[in-house]
Design a protein that fits this description.
heterodimer, A: about 450 residues, alpha+beta, Cytochrome Bc1 Complex, Chain D, domain 2, five-stranded mixed sheet, B: globular
């Protein structure tokens, strides 16, 4: 008897859990309401079977529980009953399968008027490419990928010159326009998934895959990679911004084309040197850094990283947290660099500065323990700590150790990397949390100092 | 020379009983000892995998609270947990363990037909386990590629254990498949050739049917895994490009060109989907016998049950790409695979109906094996029904790669078969050891396990609806996820730790039984099948003393009208008891 009661309670409890659960599908933001409809039908059919069969079983357990003088019926089979059950099951299955196939037929058939956005995945971030004015994407090839040509676009292909390249995990699309996301991977499998759109598809190196949708709601929708792609899988995030056509057009205009990107003049170190005199007050005339005024060493840091961080300060992605007082000061300082060209110039000067190892200021760490801690860091920052541009990971070795420790603290406390558009900072925030305490951090810094 | 059945040549055979400790218990060729060796080894690695799942649940429930878990070893934990549970625990336990123990006894044979090969099978399996465990201790650790081992990621930097870890994993799988093939050929040959007189195929207990068909599936499916493991080893060590296209890995060109990652997925799931049924079919068969015995009633629709097992086995080879709806394969495949997948629901549903109808008008003893069996039916219904979501290509769009998938396959392939494993161990424990277990402790074990696992996996489906992706070390701040999702994850972790801890009850019970347990009757459940009719209890080497049994009826003559006892063993001749209803007939 108690068993049957428990079975009944489990059935009732499951229904209640379903009805009361706050955890359910996110609010739909695309045309794929029919996916939800198919889910609903399946839920009703399977829900009915779940309740009916389990309650029947519970009834049997009560009604036919062991009694001393009772005897089971001898009934090897009942063809009629078996045929009925088979038939009804087939009907139920057909009821679920039919809408499923119908919706799938729509999914594989991309509307002709859909505009194309290429989403490119790589360990562990997203970038995007738009076809530009000719409406055609240029040829790409993974073997051509380099720091200067991160998309691997064929420079000989005229279709590629006007391609709009977005080296950021944030894509914009106009509302109510069907869009076909062409999916391409540079390295391993990834998966382009946006919960509110309901559709997802893997990115497979060596081939192009796709999905399509029509966004129906303005807003920012997070992209999650949903195919295991290595240790940083859970940090591979991005966003699709759905907005009105005019906002979209304005945004697209601001993005560089492939031709603009490749023809961009390198920074002028001479001009940069003049501007650097302001920076030198804190970072030192040789970029050697000065802990007393909270200026980290710059010399020897990668140009791409310096540029990105200065741009982040300028664009309000960094130095905006209320507890980041030093970062706030930096926001004031970068204002002397009026535009991207000015940033390029000053960075061009910094990379000419002599790279001497920063003095060790943090003592007391255990290098061997630190080496264990560094195992995870090495995936992105490299075993030598010199950083890997393709992974957006800056150099750590030979830089200011006190700064390293403070930034790790900031990442762990969301003082840095919490701005929704600071995707790379967000990644470091997630990864940095696996350095658990002060001692671990000291050990880690000691190891990095030893590199 | 005409063929003489093995059973008819029995009197010509000389029987050598093993006489030293080593030949009896270590290098034993007795299927019962090999079964126990398989079982103990499988349970041992299963406990390791259970420990790994506790580690990953700690991280998911309480992110960043435990210094011994980081993204690197987390992905190693999930990978090894999955692989161990599916291959080294469930496959080995159902086929190497129960298959070995039950096939000769239920078929009325003296042993497997190739006893030496059978012994070799176990030792090669042990070798594969040792290689697997060794991968934890090599530089870089075990692979963290996920149990599916998808290339390119499995052999490219960025994934833990891309050097020795993945190579040992692949080598271990290859060795396991060698072991399985030796065992599998044995099981199939024994079922086909060494049944006792009168044991026609349509008189065999469903346990044997389930194990038999599952073994055939394994023999056909494992080669696909074997070749993909070897090809991936070549890709890794010889720079071939079977699965490796031209890529730019972390800004460098590793030098591959022209291979296809999707090819690996096809090979993997051509093995992987039948693998689900390699685990499920033995469970289906065993639970049928448990339900029938403890309900004192014949299994309902025996012939349907047999044909359903065969149909499911056959269909399981044409549904594999439902694991790949969003893999980027040609999307038109979706139509075909969704259709075949949902068709497989029909024979599966028939099995469920027939289990439940077996209870109808039975005389149900709610002993421990029966509790586990009914618990199985409940969890299997749940897991089977959620399979209809994921098998339907459209619904896979939002749900694939989320916690819904994790919840579904744990319910259907983790909890359900494990409930059967426990039910079966309790059921056959008296036969294996000659001792009884403690009923009360067994019932507590059931309740904690059954309710605890439901508390883990029911809510987990809803995290999937919410869109929480699987294989995420941590979520961080993700806007569309309410904070309560984390609370639910904490609840699931507590349930999981609770379930893991309560498995102690099982081990206490069996150790107590071995040391202090009362002697059991030779046939404590009044069961009809031959293993309960052995002359010695527990059965000795050769199983049947001087004379092989003869089978005179099907396995389900329970409560036959006109007969005093409510069961008629299969070896009772037709002139001593009513014939019942028999589909088998004589040879």
């Amino acid at each position: 008897m108690p068993f049957a009661v428990v079975l009944i309670l489990l059935v009732v409890g499951s229904i209640l859990f379903h009805l009361l659960s706050p955890w359910t599908f996110t609010e739909l933001a695309s045309n794929w309401g029919m996916v939800d409809f198919t889910v609903d039908i399946t839920l009703y059919v399977t829900g009915f079977v779940f309740v009916a069969v389990n309650l029947f079983m519970a009834y049997c357990v009560i009604k036919f529980r062991y009694k001393k003088n009772a005897r089971a019926t001898y009934e090897p089979e009942n063809k009629k009953l078996e045929a009925w059950l088979t038939g009804l099951t087939a009907v139920g299955v057909a009821a679920m399968l039919t809408p499923g196939l119908f919706v799938w037929a729509k999914f594989v058939d991309v509307p002709e008027e859909a505009h194309v956005v290429e989403a490119v995945g790589q360990q562990w971030h997203w970038t995007f490419r738009y076809p530009g004015e000719d409406g055609r994407l240029g040829e790409v090839d993974n073997e051509r990928v380099s720091a200067k040509n991160p998309f691997g676009i064929d420079p000989e292909d005229p279709n590629g010159q006007d391609d709009v390249v977005v080296y950021s995990p944030e894509a914009h699309i106009p509302i109510d326009q069907p869009v076909k996301f062409l999916l391409r991977s540079k390295d391993v499998l990834h998966d382009f998934a946006v919960a509110q759109f309901r559709v997802k598809m893997d990115l497979v190196p060596g081939m192009d895959t796709f999905l399509w949708l029509t966004p129906t709601r303005n807003g920012r929708f997070e992209i999650l990679c949903e195919e295991l792609c290595g240790i940083g899988h859970h940090t591979m995030r991005g966003a699709v911004i759905v907005e009105d056509q005019s906002d979209f057009d304005a945004w697209l205009d601001r993005q560089p084309t492939f031709a603009e990107q490749t023809s961009r003049a390198p920074g002028n170190a001479a001009i940069g040197a003049a501007q650097y005199t302001v920076c030198a007050a804190c970072h030192g005339s040789e970029g050697q850094g000065d802990e007393a005024v909270n200026g980290p060493k710059l010399a020897g840091q990668s140009a791409w990283y310096l540029k990105r961080q200065i741009m982040n300060y300028k664009n309000g992605l960094r130095g905006v947290h209320k507890d980041d007082t030093i970062g706030q000061a930096m926001v004031g300082m970068v204002a002397i660099l009026p535009d991207e060209t000015a940033v390029d110039n000053v960075v061009a000067h910094i990379v000419t500065l002599p790279d001497n190892p920063a003095p060790v200021t943090i003592e007391g760490g255990n290098i061997e323990d630190g080496q264990q801690e560094y195992r995870v860091c090495a995936y992105c920052h490299g075993a030598d700590g010199l950083g890997v541009q393709a992974l957006n990971a800056p150099r750590l070795a030979g830089m200011s150790d006190w700064y390293l420790e403070r930034q790790l603290q900031n990442f762990r406390n969301d003082v840095r990397g919490s701005h929704p558009q600071d995707y790379y900072g967000f990644q470091m925030g997630l990864m940095g949390r696996s350095v658990y305490d002060e001692q671990a951090m000291t050990d880690l810094v000691a190891y990095i100092n030893s590199l | 020379m005409s063929y003489v059945a093995i059973a008819d040549r029995d009197h010509e055979q000389e029987h050598h009983d093993p006489d030293t400790f080593i030949t009896k218990y270590i290098w034993s060729q007795d299927h019962k000892v090999i079964a126990i060796q398989y079982g103990l080894t499988a349970i041992f690695v299963g406990l390791i995998a259970l420990g790994l799942s506790a580690m990953m649940r700690l991280q998911l429930g309480f992110p960043d609270e435990f210094s011994f878990i980081n993204p690197e070893n987390y992905y190693q934990f999930i990978t090894m947990h999955g692989m161990i549970m599916v291959i080294y625990l469930l496959t080995a336990l159902f086929l190497g363990g129960f298959g070995n123990y039950l096939i000769p006894l239920m078929c009325g044979s003296r042993d497997m037909v190739f006893p030496f090969l059978n012994m070799l099978s176990y030792w090669v399996y042990l070798l594969s386990v040792i290689i697997l465990i060794a991968s934890f201790f090599v530089p870089g650790g075990s692979t963290g590629a996920g149990w599916t081992l998808y290339p390119p990621q499995a052999i490219m930097p960025g994934t833990p254990g891309v050097d020795l870890g993945i190579l040992l994993m692949l080598a271990s799988l290859a060795v396991f498949i060698v072991a399985f093939t030796m065992g599998g050929l044995n099981y199939v040959t024994t079922v086909l050739q060494a049944r006792c007189k009168g044991m026609t195929l349509m008189r065999m207990p469903l346990s044997v049917w389930g194990i038999f068909i599952a073994t055939i599936l394994g023999l056909l499916a494992f080669p696909a895994l074997l070749v993909s493991a070897i090809m991936m080893i070549f890709d890794k060590t010889l720079m071939t490009s079977f699965f490796m296209p031209a890529i730019s890995s972390m800004g460098a060109d590793p030098g591959y060109t022209g291979g296809s990652p999707i090819l690996f997925q096809h090979l993997f799931w051509f093995f992987g989907h039948p693998e689900v049924y390699i685990v499920a079919l033995p469970a289906f068969g065993i639970v049928s016998d448990l339900l029938s015995t403890h309900a004192r009633k014949n299994i309902f629709g025996y012939r349907m049950m047999v044909w359903a097992i065969i149909a499911i086995g056959g269909l399981s080879f044409i549904v594999w790409a439902h694991h790949m709806y969003v893999s980027g394969m040609n999307p038109y495949f979706g139509f075909f695979f969704a259709t075949t997948t949902l068709i497989i629901a029909v024979p599966t549903a028939i099995k469920v109906y027939n289990w439940v109808l077996t209870l109808w008008e039975g005389n149900i003893h709610l002993r421990v094996p029966m509790l586990f069996s009914i618990g199985f039916v409940f969890t299997f219904i749940h897991g089977g029904l959620t399979g209809l979501f994921l098998g339907n290509v459209t619904i896979d769009l939002p749900l694939s790669d989320t916690y819904f998938v994790v919840a579904h396959f744990h319910m259907v392939m983790g909890v359900s078969p494990v409930l059967v494993v426990f039910g079966a161990i309790y059921h056959w424990w008296p036969k294996i050891t000659g001792k009884m277990y403690n009923e009360t402790l067994g019932k507590w074990h059931f309740w904690m396990t059954f309710l605890g696992t439901y508390a883990i996996y029911l809510p987990m489906h809803y995290l999937g609806f919410q869109g929480v992706p699987r294989r995420y070390f941590s979520m961080g701040n993700t806007e569309f996820m309410p904070d309560s999702a984390q609370d639910l994850n904490a609840f699931i972790t507590i349930s999981a730790l609770f379930v893991a801890a309560t498995q102690l009850l099982f081990f206490i019970n069996i150790i107590w039984s071995l040391m202090r347990g009362p002697k059991s009757d030779p046939n404590p459940w009044d069961a009809t099948t031959l293993e309960w009719q052995t002359p010695d209890h527990p059965p000795k080497h050769g199983n049947w003393g001087h004379h092989l049994p003869e089978c005179h009826r099907w396995a389900y003559d329970y409560s036959v009208p006109g007969y005093e006892d409510d069961f008629i063993p299969q070896n009772v001749p037709a002139d001593k008891a009513p014939a019942g209803r028999d589909h088998g007939g004589e040879h």
